[in-house]
Design a protein that fits this description.
two-stranded antiparallel ribbon; about 900 residues; elongated; mainly alpha
């Protein structure tokens, strides 16, 4: 299909016939030699007329490789062996050769096996055959080298062949071609002698032309296709290339890599084998005789195709190494150096690596496009136009106009101007849309879906661009920009981690988790001020995701780093709040009490109200953990006063909700109800529906503690339904536990049993993390462990309702063990009261009373009247116990 420009070509006889047949078959000289199993020098000499009488075996191999049959094959062999009689002049030969062509042209090679492209084939077939036909029917497949453009084009052409009665043929562009060369070869493959005859050839019926590798001679391709559009309006053209042709009316279809298994897919061969990238690798491994992957290779299989980015060429190259290496060895050897994957050298031809393939597309970019790709190479996850714009924006220059050390200018370090100037710096603002469009058109970045974070740099492209950035001495500046960009993103998201958009905010950070960790790891060493700002904004996210230990280690390291001593005071204070909050999660809160106290003082000096409120909320939890219940309440009341004075309605609601626990702790349930009513009113004012629902969940618990079981069930069931809609499984389980316990205590055994079964089923099925209300509030990540305690309390209450005291005592003891790990000791106290009331073992009863007294002292808990009545009825020796001592000063007026 390609015009050959050999300078010493002899146009005549068998040499010319061989050349024309090779071009019609869409083969280069090397490809024909490989297919025929002869030397490339043999083919070259035959086409140049240097071999006058080739061996019959060679001719037969060439005929077979060219797909010749019947009379065409006989004529080919006869002419090669000098048995065709005297040859006419060149014009006569051309006419004879033309007469031997099929009336619909030479056709196209058979498409190879195509995996994972069914949708692409269907869409492209529809574009080529749509009615009425568009004026300029050029459809271009663009993408990175090795993405599978040619195979897809051949498959599409085969699918639509019947819709083009005028014939389907193709050509391959080569460097140095001219418009005349292209038109001449098009004439050849469609069975006419001259380019001037093409108008008549295409006038009868629609035809399809495939033009492969247009990037090799883009100017010639554009001119030739523009000319064909004028003389052959019924001709449809399907092109492939690393960039569009650039014609008016051209429809561009990027060819993306094959889909790889996402992170949340189970690592099971039967599951992942359905993803096209995995299917292709498995198919190629079968072709080289490899056995199916062993169970211990499946993880490597999935990780390998992810690292290869679903790029078919990369997968083919990796599979070729499967003759020697198993999948684990492949991943170990090439997982971090994919660009080194390549073919083995053949003869004098050098090996071709993935680096060569990416470099070919990289060289087609303009200077600013190459610079943009190098900047984007540091992004690890999917990213948005907004993030790209932040990465691509030039840094403002100092007043003296000179770039500071590490400044990131938009220059092309691959080819610096000879005069040393920054000639590639854009004159105006960077247009990220134009740059992204160009990178998409070249297949160097991909886009999936319609959400904001839909763009991604292929792993092999990212590795190559990072190599170029390092070679240009700009990679450190790019990473510094990356850290700054993601510190800014975290700062914008963090306010929503304490509001109605909590779940959405967590999801946004989850989506860029890889970039957040990368930015933190780099900046902690090279830019600690940025690292401190970033880490301080991630504390709530770390807490929610159970990374409290790692997060605290990062924050403590940064706070102790002498280089952050002069950091922004607000950034340091937020980091101090975060380190205390995270320490509280794993029982180390008292160690960070000075940090939280220092944060309060810093925020007061800065008049930073949100910061002071956050710090006081954390201090509530820290003081509670060490038994400082009065100090905890003082901080809660100070937070309420500050929020009220500054008119921060949501923070007023949060403070009231946190203080509700203190009212329950001292047994003042009436005050607890009043605070919850205030929470409901304030949350309604600021539109915090989730906060209103959580307040009602607490109201259901208060009703249960008061013995108003029907009210507790009614409120609790409404809360359970609302939390299902809000997507908060943790608090939903807790509310469901309140409902089940109230039903059991009310003697509604069947209903309580049904709730118990649902609780246990949900515990097995829910994998969601905790959903927090506010730093320092109740730890909802305790909900999952406390499920066992709540279920045990329900079982114990049901046993008591059935009159089975022995079973009840066993279940109350189990509830004590399950709840003892909780910071809120109220559940432990309730279980111990039940154990005292149900056990018939005097020693066990006495031990339970002593433990109850200890829990009440540690938790500042005052038993409710009905609980004291149960203790009194148990006839226990109260020597050395002080269960009643803490209830003498309860303020029954509330607050």
């Amino acid at each position: 299909m390609t015009p050959d420009h050999g300078s010493d070509r002899v146009p005549g006889g068998f040499a010319e016939l061989l050349r024309r047949c090779r071009l019609a078959a869409g083969l280069t000289q090397a490809e024909l030699a490989e297919r025929a199993a002869v030397g490339i020098r043999t083919v070259r000499d035959l086409e140049r007329g240097r071999a006058s009488r080739p061996q019959r075996t060679t001719v037969e191999l060439l005929a077979a490789a060219l797909g010749l049959a019947g009379q065409d094959r006989s004529d080919f062999v006869a002419l090669a062996r000098g048995q065709a009689g005297p040859m006419p002049e060149m014009g006569g030969l051309a006419s004879a050769a033309s007469r031997r062509l099929p009336t619909r042209g030479y056709g196209l090679p058979e498409p190879g096996e195509l995996i994972g492209r069914d949708r692409d084939v269907a869409d492209l077939a529809a574009m080529l055959t749509e009615q009425p036909r568009v004026a300029r029917g050029v459809v271009s497949l663009v993408g990175l080298a090795g993405v599978g453009k040619t195979g897809l084009a051949l498959k599409v052409a085969r699918e639509v062949a019947d819709d083009f009665p005028g014939g389907t043929s193709g050509i391959v562009m080569i460097e140095g071609s001219t418009e005349g060369d292209v038109l001449s070869v098009v004439a050849t493959v469609f069975g006419v002698g001259r380019a001037s005859d093409l108008a008549g050839r295409f006038s009868d019926a629609p035809s399809l032309l495939l033009v492969d590798a247009v990037e090799r001679a883009p100017g010639a391709a554009a001119e030739a296709l523009d000319r064909l559009a004028e003389i052959a309006p019924t001709l449809r053209v399907l092109t492939t290339g690393r960039h569009p042709v650039g014609l008016s009316g051209e429809r561009v279809r990027p060819v993306t890599p094959l889909e790889v298994p996402p992170a949340d897919v189970p690592i099971d061969l039967a599951v992942v084998a359905d993803y096209p990238a995995v299917a292709l690798l498995l198919a190629r491994l079968r072709q080289i005789g490899r056995e199916p992957p062993q169970p211990d290779e499946v993880v490597a299989l999935v990780e390998l195709v992810r690292r290869l980015g679903g790029l078919p060429l990369a997968i083919e190259l990796a599979a070729a190494h499967g003759r020697v290496l198993n999948l684990n060895e492949l991943l170990d050897r090439y997982g971090n150096r994919l660009l080194d994957l390549g073919t083995a050298p053949v003869g004098r031809a050098a090996a071709v690596t993935l680096r060569d393939a990416v470099a070919a597309s990289y060289r087609l970019l303009d200077a600013d496009e190459r610079a943009a790709l190098r900047r984007l190479s540091v992004l690890r996850n999917r990213w948005s136009v907004e993030l790209a714009e932040s990465m691509l924006a030039p840094y403002p220059l100092p007043a003296d106009g000179s770039p500071s050390p590490g400044d990131l200018r938009f220059t092309d370090g691959d080819a610096p101007p000879a005069d040393g100037s920054a000639g590639d710096e854009p004159a105006g603002p960077v247009d990220p849309v134009r740059l992204l469009d160009r990178l998409l058109a070249h297949g160097l970045i991909g886009a999936r879906g319609t959400g904001p974070l839909r763009f991604r740099v292929l792993d092999v492209v990212r590795d190559f661009a990072a190599e170029r950035a390092t070679a240009n001495g700009e990679f450190a500046a790019i990473r510094r920009r990356h850290a700054s960009v993601f510190a800014g993103l975290a700062a914008r998201v963090v306010p929503d981690l304490a509001g109605a958009r909590f779940v959405e905010a967590v999801g946004r950070l989850d989506e860029v988790a890889g970039d957040l960790w990368t930015a933190l790891a780099y900046s902690a060493n090279d830019d600690p001020h940025t690292a401190l700002r970033l880490a301080g904004n991630l504390a709530r996210w770390w807490r929610y995701r159970g990374r409290d230990v790692a997060g605290r280690q990062w924050l403590r390291r940064l706070l102790d780093d002498p280089r952050t001593g002069d950091a922004d005071p607000a950034a340091r204070a937020w980091a101090q709040v975060g380190v205390a909050q995270l320490a509280q999660e794993h029982g180390a809160g008292p160690q960070e009490l000075p940090s939280a106290e220092a944060a309060v003082a810093a925020f007061q000096r800065l008049s930073d109200v949100p910061g002071e409120l956050a710090a006081r909320n954390v201090l509530c939890g820290l003081w509670t953990a060490i038994g400082g219940h009065d100090e905890a309440r003082q901080h809660g009341e100070a937070a309420l006063e500050l929020a009220t004075r500054t008119g921060r309605i949501r923070d007023m609601a949060v403070a009231q909700n946190n203080l509700t626990w203190h009212e329950i702790r001292v047994g003042d349930l009436a005050a607890a109800r009043r605070r919850l009513a205030a929470v409901d009113r304030l949350a309604a004012e600021c539109g915090e529906e989730r906060l209103r629902v959580l307040a009602r969940a607490n109201l259901a618990e208060v009703a249960r503690l008061e013995g108003r079981y029907p009210d507790a069930v009614r409120h609790g069931r409404r809360v359970v339904s609302a939390l299902a809609d809000l997507g908060d499984p943790g608090h939903r389980r807790r509310a469901l536990g309140t409902v089940g316990l109230a039903l059991a205590q009310d003697g509604r055994i069947d209903e309580a049993t049904a709730v118990l079964a649902e609780l246990r089923a949900r515990k097995a099925g829910d994998g969601a993390g905790p959903v927090e209300l506010e730093p320092g509030g109740a730890r909802t990540d305790e909900i999952a462990p406390r499920d066992d305690g709540i279920c045990a309390l329900i079982e114990a209450s049901l046993a008591m309702q059935r009159g089975d005291r022995e079973w009840a005592a066993e279940w109350y003891a189990a509830a004590v063990r399950a709840c003892e790990g909780s910071r809120d000791l109220r559940d432990v106290a309730e279980a111990l009261v039940g154990l005292v009331a149900s056990t018939d073992d005097p020693a066990a009863r006495t031990a339970a009373v002593r433990r109850l007294a200890q829990v009440c002292r540690e938790g500042g808990i005052v038993l409710l009247p009905r609980e004291r009545a149960l203790i009194d009825a148990a006839d226990v020796d109260r020597t050395d116990t002080d269960v009643d001592r803490t209830d003498t000063d309860v303020d029954q007026t509330g607050s």
